[in-house]
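Entry 14. Structure prediction run on the chain below.
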Amino acid sequence: MAEVHALLYVTGEALCTDDVMERLQISRGNASMSLRALVDWNIISRVTRRGDRKEYFEAEQDVWALFRAIVRERLNREVDPLLANLHEIRDMTTRHGGAAGKHSESPEEVRRVAEHNQRLDEMVEFFEMLAGLSTQFVSPAGKGLRLAASLLTKLPDGHRGKNERLKETGS
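Output returned:
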């Protein structure tokens, strides 16, 4: 799928399935599945040519729009389900007694569950913050992403890590 996208992006022109198959030496099934997935991700689009019955595909050429679409899709496919699972796991430990616990749980068991829940809570907090930040970046206008990238590149030297400075100085 990445190769198909790279081909469409680098060529900068609309290609049909046959062109993609020929240039990448892949099967029709592979080309069709990759093109369909890329259309679903909104990083390529279908194009028609007058008088030609073939379907053509072209890649989004705006790098910022491309990155926003990829981040949006990753959030939907990876981060959102992960957060849902983490919340579900956290709810399960609370329902089954958790740190508030049953009177029959030993102090050690209560401590272990409380530590477990703290780790889960920290993980949930991190991914919720990441999702919130990412959502700001992937707004349709993309201003959040450009602004953040612009601000991060302008950070003074003191905000970079010690290891980065050591690499630059050769120490």
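The first helix runs from residue 2 to 11.
Filed with the rest of this week's runs.
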